[in-house]
Design brief:
Chains A, B: Keywords: ATP-binding, Ligase, NAD, Nucleotide-binding. Chains A, B: Its EC number is 6.3.5.1. Chains A, B: It comes from Maribacter polysiphoniae. 2 copies of one chain form a homodimer. Chain A is α/β, with parallel strands linked by helices and 645 residues long. Chain A has 2 domains: 2-307, Nitrilase/N-carbamoyl-D-aminoacid amidohydrolase, CATH 3.60.110; 324-637, Rossmann fold. In chain A, 37% of the residues lie in helices and 16% in strands. The N and C termini of chain A lie far apart (58 Å). In chain A, the strands form 5 sheets. In chain A, strands 1, 2, 3, 4, 5, 6 and 17 form a 7-stranded mixed beta sheet that branches. Chain A has 22 helices and 22 strands. At the A-B interface, helix 2, helix 4, strand 9, helix 12 and helix 13 of A face helix 2, strand 9, helix 12, helix 13 and helix 17 of B.
Chain lengths: 645, 645
């Protein structure tokens, strides 16, 4: 019985590309575990070098460097067993060894060692090295590129003409005279329900239990997304149901921040022990933080209830931690200049920066032109005062003049739209990016997801920056997060309430509506609240198309599907089929036409299940009007009004 | 015997996202083939909608629209057989159907039809639909993301617990009373040597021949890379050697341009018929152009020699066609404003634009500051005159003054480096991007691959643009292409010779060395010629690391490995170990530190086997100095001089 093993879960901060730092951290936790008489300490997947290393995995020398740390960990395994994730490379390209791309075959592997030697399996197979097991299931959706880099255990089985079960065997951990079989998995191996062989899910857990595993450990590098821990609970329950018998199931995940260039991805830990019923019973109490969880025989394995998450709170924490722990991108002590327009988006970003880094690290810059109202200028100043940050006002009219002059040397006037862009580029490229270079600070892209979708910002203007903190939040979520921060984080009005709409995105007389203020009386063309929900559907993991939206409209359940009230539809005149169509087509076409801008956007902190960046991969393509679209359009044009079901 | 079938290869221009256009093109070719009594006409992989559609493949409505064209093609198949590539979706997520990501299972498929019905197989399997065969091998390296979108035939075999051979069966094409079995493959299916099962390559061709195929057709969407047609010849020969017996092998590829947002990828056709010996015997004579090749029984199947390519000529054609046929990105009648500095890179880009679009579509803009010499200004003007394009001179000093003024309102002076960036941003963001918006033109990023690697350009300045035509050429290739264009395309000096170095990258007194001219007496810090070759190794398909370069230095074969002379090493003082190390470390570290810029770069036309963009995927990571690096560094520091072996 594994109850006799004291197992520790090392929920550690994994810093990609810094193996020395990570291994020192592991050695410290190993020492601490030894002091607590732990028998087996388990660390996350790819904890030595990081999981999101991009094409560094294609450089053999890089991988060999990461593997070189295995020696140190082997030496540290006296009087303890250690399991952790690292790359395993077989450098040969001969015989069974080449990868599918002809390069070195590389495994995303779990290493198991004890007392200075690699742990043996219940049943060795003569194919895999002792103490090393590759990941079986490789995620290749969203921002995951596992198939690009790694050769799976399933592929090994195919190559050698073996059953998977011939290669999947628990590792033996010694305790006194006993040798206790522990099954090891890596991350996706537990999300097996859609990977299929012989008409059944490829249930790694079941194979390991059948091969004698007395406990299962799953080592993960599982990025945070909202409610994922709850989803994982359901998946473990599913494994229990599929497996017949079940054993204790230890899930260890990392914390920290990694990136793939286009997205910043956060890890919240959430390490959990499940009992033989597949119910969560011991939860890490430290979300987003390191936690050494020691589970000994005195622990209670009674089921516990996982608290239901709060969307905005979790997304706030993702952005907060994504900023705070992003030293790979922003260095160890980053400072910021931020353009403060007096609008809601830049106000939220400035507040997030202050919360993550401190008020002395942030300088607000207001850059008024003739179009900026006293109201927005006042709001920017009020925010800066509320946050206690340094605040500069740099009027741009002189630069607008000299820029306009040079652009009209051909004798032809600039259009009003050209002049809008001129202003935005002066603010972004001429002032903010140069100021940030002068001070060695960073500046931010303050766009939200709706703006990024619609390209509603100026390339080389407010589209620029080192990072896009709220680029995966809809405008509704931006407003919600402002409320959350005022109410729950500060407990007082920091972000001016005059920027915050009511539930139907209406503003009072004294308030400030969203506006770019690049010409007179400009108001954003978005139908906030409604467009936010549309965008969520279009960019969901299961992507809804314009045809789906139109079908819902015809069926009269659009409001239900989007989770909005009929009052919101009336507020934006979407009950009028012609306005619905005009707007929807504009919305959808505009998103497609602005891929070229997203190609040049800075990294976005991921907070949804489908973020622009590297999660959504876009070719620059024309808008395609399908036959189904045309048929639906005709139908809707013939409608008098939206008929709610 | 298949000799009795007259087969046509429809080497067509595939425009991604425009199925109506593509299908009309196919219908036209089908009609033409009928007039020439063709029995079977074959079109490329994914020719209905395009191959590089990004996440459009995740939208069911988009895929259904592409599939809706199957009806039209079926109707057009009276009196002829048709084979072509298109998506196949089984929308159900029940039973065997979900994809590994839980979404709809989608196939990159070949459709085969004749006389209004889908073609039957020699042996139907009860699993796959009649007339439809999924791609077996899915490339998932470089810019290929097949595993992200498609479910392979191999995965189907696994899911149903079948041998692959049970699902791979030739299609029967009727001619008179005969039914002739033709084996169908898709693209990667022929590059099978590194995909393995049971210790052997997964040889689809062999399986199809064993199942009775009297000919094989391979439908491809195979991007151009240098010498790929020659590599393909070797692979077909390999298939012949591996397969025991062999049959005639028809390879049809598309032409045209597709993109994935970050890279523009060109297709050169190269459709080829191979004889029973696996030797190429009939080659498309139309590189990069549409070609309807009709191969009847009178054709000669004697082996022919494929002309060896000329690197610079092929790369020139890739860029020329990549620009000319890039309507998805640039629209149907694009015009350009291009910044002409009087340097070699912008001169080449301007010349390429004129060649691709015509001189009346290009406006050159010289934007001098106090640092620009009469020599470079003269070179820019001379180029514009040689090309016959409109030419503007817009001095930037006034804007530099007003920008400097606003940036020094804090009383602190800008550094010399800050002032350099200020100038570049005025040129790129304030002038070129606004001028292009004013005229509804495009502007270009004129950087070469060495600059893009080193980040040697200013973000929101010369880093911007709609497309990066020469972003995958090293500086040496830039110079080579200038010579090629002067000598072979124009037959006279269009690009001023005073910009072109000798073979050791030396310039005469009267010539112009590469310089950004952002401060006095500035000269580019690159060791051209040598750095170009270093970069080629580092970004090759088989990526060499800094440790490899150092090892070659120690071994005395660096010059051989890089293919440069010792004179080039002396010219850049690389024979001095300390200078070699200083420079190499700077070069390598600088590349790593500039990932953040590449994240925000415009699309690059791909001309190498590893282009920045989406071909090389980079996380923003710190520089990692490996133990091997440190040991090698110590060794090299102890050397007196480079010792050529």
């Amino acid at each position: 019985m594994t109850d006799t093993l004291t197992i520790a879960l090392g929920q550690m901060d994994v810093v990609p590309g810094r193996p020395r730092l990570n291994v020192d951290n592991m050695l410290r936790m190993i020492q601490e575990a030894k002091e607590q008489s732990v028998d087996l300490i388990c660390f996350p997947e790819m904890c030595v070098g990081g999981y999101l290393l991009g094409d560094k995995f294609l450089e053999d020398a890089y991988c060999e460097e990461l593997m070189s740390y295995n020696e140190e960990l082997l030496a540290a395994s006296n009087d303890i067993a250690i399991a952790y994730g690292n790359i395993y490379v077989n450098g040969s390209t001969e015989g069974h060894h080449p990868n599918k791309d002809g390069r070195s075959r590389k495994y995303n592997a779990v290493y198991v060692m004890q007392n200075g030697t690699y742990a043996e399996r219940v049943q060795e197979n003569g194919i895999l090295p002792t103490g090393v097991q590759p990941k079986t299931l490789l995620p290749n959706y969203r921002f995951f590129d596992d198939e690009r880099y790694f050769f799976s255990l399933y592929d090994v089985a195919i190559d050698y003409g073996k059953d998977l079960s011939a290669l999947l065997s628990p590792f033996l951990i010694s305790k006194g005279d006993q040798r206790i079989p522990i099954g090891m998995e890596l991350c996706e191996d537990l999300w097996c329900h859609d990977y299929r062989a012989d008409g059944e899910p490829i249930n790694i857990t079941k194979i390991l239990i059948a091969a004698g595993a007395e406990s299962i450990v799953n080592l993960s590098a599982s990025p945070w997304t909202f409610m994922k821990n709850n989803a994982r609970d359901r998946r473990v329950k599913y494994l229990r149901e599929q497996s017949g018998s079940f054993v204790k199931y230890y899930y260890v995940n990392c914390v920290g921040v990694q990136n793939n260039g286009k997205n910043v991805i956060t890890f919240d830990g959430g390490s959990t022990v499940y009992n033989e019923e597949g119910d969560p019973c011991i939860l890490s109490k430290k979300g987003w933080e390191e936690d050494l969880m020691v589970i000994d025989e005195k622990a209670s394995f009674l089921p516990t209830k996982r608290p239901r998450g709060n969307t905005i709170r979790e997304k706030y924490l993702a952005i907060f931690n994504g900023l705070k722990n992003s030293s790979n991108m922003l260095g160890d002590d980053p400072h910021f200049v931020i353009g403060l327009s007096g609008g809601i988006d830049s106000s939220l970003v400035a507040t997030l920066l202050v919360l993550a880094f401190g008020k002395e690290k942030v300088v607000g810059v207001n850059m008024p032109s003739q179009y900026n109202s006293d109201k927005t200028k006042g709001a920017a100043k009020a925010l800066a005062e509320n946050l206690g940050i340094e605040y500069l006002v740099l009027p741009i009219e002189d630069m607008v003049k000299s820029n306009t002059h040079i652009l009209q040397l051909d004798g032809k006037p600039l259009s009003e739209f050209n002049l809008e862009n001129v202003q935005a580029k002066i603010r972004g490229a001429s002032i903010l990016s140069n100021l940030s270079a002068k001070y060695r600070y960073f500046f931010t892209n303050n766009g939200n997801k709706v703006e990024i979708a619609l390209g509603y910002a100026t390339l080389y203007g407010d589209w620029g920056g080192a990072i896009t903190p709220i680029g995966d939040l809809t405008k509704t979520e931006v407003a919600d997060m402002c409320h959350y921060i005022n109410d729950e984080v500060f407990g007082k009005e920091i972000i001016p309430e005059l920027l915050l709409p009511d539930a139907l995105w209406r503003f009072g007389e004294a308030q400030i509506q969203p506006t770019a203020e690049l010409k007179s009386n400009q108001v954003d063309p978005m139908k906030f609240g409604y467009h936010c929900k549309l965008l969520e559907e279009i960019t969901n993991f299961r992507k809804k198309s314009i045809e789906d939206i139109m079908t819902w409209y015809v069926e009269g359940n659009l409001h239900e599907k989007l989770g909005i009230g009929l009052d919101m539809m009336l507020r934006w005149h979407i009950d009028d089929p012609k306005e619905f169509l005009r707007d929807l087509e504009w919305f959808y076409d505009t998103i497609q036409k602005n891929v070229f801008k997203r190609v040049q956007s800075p990294p976005i902190i991921l907070t949804s299940k489908s973020s622009y960046g590297y999660d959504i991969r876009e070719s620059i393509l024309p808008v395609l009007k399908t036959k189904k679209f045309k048929a639906l359009k005709e139908r809707i044009m013939a409608m008098d009004t939206y008929m709610a079901k």
